[in-house]
Write a structure and sequence with these properties.
By secondary structure, this protein is of the alpha+beta class. The chain has one domain: Cytochrome P450 (Cytochrome p450, Orthogonal Bundle), CATH 1.10.630.10. It has helices spanning 3-24, 44-47, 52-63, 82-90, 103-108, 123-134, 138-162, 167-184, 194-210, 216-219, 233-245, 247-261, 269-275, 281-315, 317-331, 345-357, 389-393, 413-419, 425-428, 441-458, 499-507, and strands at residues 66-71, 74-79, 364-367, 372-374, 377-379, 384-387, 459-463, 492-496. A 4-stranded mixed β-sheet has the order 1-2-6-3. It has a two-stranded antiparallel sheet with strand order 4-5. The protein has a two-stranded antiparallel ribbon with strand order 7-8. Helix 7 runs antiparallel to helix 8. The protein starts with a helix and ends with a helix. Bound molecules: protoporphyrin IX containing FE.
């Protein structure tokens, strides 16, 4: 068959699939309002835009908190308020815990052994979530995780002192070091660590393959039937991702298995799992992919948060000074610990505001397992449900003056409770919803707080050019458009805040 007839045939497949799907879509009631979109394609092109959350925010203004649209053969429900996400994704959690069809990441690359890709009713998903959550229970957190974080934090402070301009690299390495050590007992020392390199590539591949809009085949699934010899860009990308898919999880798992067998394993989640006795083949597969999920779930998200923290401090010196003053008053001239947290209300407010103003995960996709009805609207089974986190975080009625960095908003808790404003973003959106809520939250919350207060206890973070205009956060300016959004590359000055602070850091070097 010639090139052009193959493409024609593929287009025919697309048209037939879309028409068949729209004819088969049950209309048991009125769908929520929403944009009409193009014939056949629906709003697929809007989903593929850079920062689709800004388009979704416009739809919220136009149609309200609950919007329905189609993207080729996919029906999508957009939820843009605390009320709708809570009532559907949290309260009706069992029906809203599936994931949308993942054509590129699941069906083509084959990432379905990871916890976040399959639907919730697959027993393996619940088993994996349980292992991940138990891996951060209070005992493991206190005895194994926080001590590792504290040790790696000391390394981070030393790196900031010596090579402050490389702060982004130091942050990335700090997180990777924590995750490798608690998951596999692997000590990350060198920048060219092979395991780190492999995991970084896998993590990039995974996040790209799951980004709504990154690949046309996700919006128009029938494209996956195009013949492989067309060698389109996404086909080549998929082949490259497949080559790394299994190997990244197998190598560190095999290493720990061998160490456990010969009694040389360092303490880690994987060693604990393997020391319980010979796992079945099915358990081995689960353990391997849990290891992979610790990295892909924890690395880019936490790095994005810390880069956002550094960026926000460089832009808001007055907030930074207030936080530093509070730390000085409570902690004095030593490094803080989590035991100080209860007295550091302003620092906690800074952390909350970083989570809110530029959410690490601006849109969160779930899917319905069954037909549903809400406020008179019909919501079909298999609908992609998108929590519009960015819009919720910038909702003026909940967070007054929403595009401004203002930690003070969280301080008057009584007034906030009375007016229903300024809820803690960590509790109702930053970590997701219902049965799919981030299973890493148990460690992410203390780790983000500990790191922010430790850095602020000894360093000043200053803008390279303090007079430059501030980004317009109502347009998500200067933040990347990926699944996990972070500041675009930026420069700043990181310097010890006093002679005593410098001495504290230097004392860690011996
Ligand atoms: C600042 C740090 C973090 C943020 C902002 C964050 C945020 C999120 C969000 C929004 C989700 C989607 C939840 C949903 O679908 O409703 C998620 C899922 C997930 N997170 Fe985190 N996360 C962070 C840290 C971590 C850490 C440290 C781990 C390590 C264990 C982790 C592991 C995961 C996993 C495995 C999932 C998929 C869960 C599933 O699909 O059932 N995350 N995270």
């Amino acid at each position: 068959m010639s090139n052009s007839s193959s493409i024609l045939l593929a287009l025919l497949v697309v048209v037939v699939a879309v028409v068949a799907s729209s004819l088969s879509r049950k209309r048991a009631g009125k769908l929520p309002p929403g944009p009409r979109g193009l014939p056949l394609l629906g709003n697929a092109l809007d989903m593929m835009k850079l920062r689709p959350w800004l388009v979704y925010n416009e739809w919220k203004q136009q149609y309200g908190d609950i919007v329905y649209f189609t993207a080729a053969d996919r029906g999508c429900l957009l939820l843009s308020s605390h009320k709708t996400t809570h009532e559907l994704m949290d309260k009706r959690g069992s029906n809203y815990a599936d994931r949308p069809r993942a054509v590129m990441s699941g069906e083509i690359v084959g990432y379905h052994p990871k916890v976040s890709v399959p639907n919730y009713n697959v027993p393996r998903v619940r088993q994996m979530r349980k292992i991940i959550i138990e891996g951060q229970n209070a005992k493991r957190l206190n005895d194994s995780i926080i001590p590792v974080v504290e040790e790696k934090l000391q390394g981070l402070l030393i790196s900031f002192l010596h090579k402050p301009d490389d702060f982004a690299h130091h942050i990335k390495k700090f997180i990777a070091g924590v995750i490798f050590e608690i998951t596999y007992g692997h000590v990350l020392e060198d920048d060219d660590d092979k395991l780190w390199e492999t995991y970084e590539q896998m993590s990039k591949d995974f996040s790209l393959s799951t980004s709504i809009g990154a690949f046309a085949v996700d919006s128009v699934p029938a494209l996956k039937y195009l013949p492989r010899w067309l060698n389109l860009g996404w086909m080549q990308e998929a082949d490259r991702m497949i080559a790394l898919r299994d190997v990244h999880a197998q190598v560190p798992y095999d290493a720990v298995k061998e160490q456990v067998a010969n009694g040389t394993a360092r303490p880690s989640l994987m060693a604990t799992l393997l020391e319980r006795g010979q796992p079945t083949l099915e358990q081995e597969d689960i353990f391997k992919w849990v290891g992979s999920d610790f990295y892909s779930g924890g690395s880019d998200t936490t790095t994005a948060f810390f880069l956002s923290f550094v960026y926000m401090m460089s832009l808001h010196p007055e907030a930074m000074r207030k936080a530093q003053k509070e730390i000085k008053q409570v902690v004095g001239n030593r490094l803080p610990t989590l035991a100080d947290k209860a007295q550091l209300m302003y620092v906690d407010a800074v952390v909350q505001e970083i989570f809110r103003l530029n959410p690490v995960v601006p849109i969160i996709p779930h899917a319905t397992a069954e037909d549903d009805e809400y406020e008179g609207y019909f919501i079909p089974k298999g609908t992609t449900v998108i929590a519009n986190v960015w819009a919720i975080a910038h909702d003026e009625s909940v967070y007054p003056d929403p595009h401004t960095f203002k930690p003070e908003r969280y301080l008057n808790q009584e007034e906030n409770a009375r007016t229903g404003t300024n809820p803690d973003p960590r509790k109702n959106m930053a970590f997701g919803y219902g049965r799919r809520i981030c299973p890493g939250q148990h460690m992410a919350e203390p780790v983000t707080f500990l790191t922010v207060m430790t850095i602020l206890s000894v360093f000043d973070i200053e803008a390279t050019n303090p007079n430059a205009p501030k980004p317009d956060f109502s347009k998500a300016e200067k933040y990347t458009t990926e699944l996990f959004s972070r500041p675009e590359p930026f420069t700043c000055r990181i310097v010890p805040s006093s002679k005593e602070s410098e001495a504290l850091i230097r004392a860690l070097e011996v």
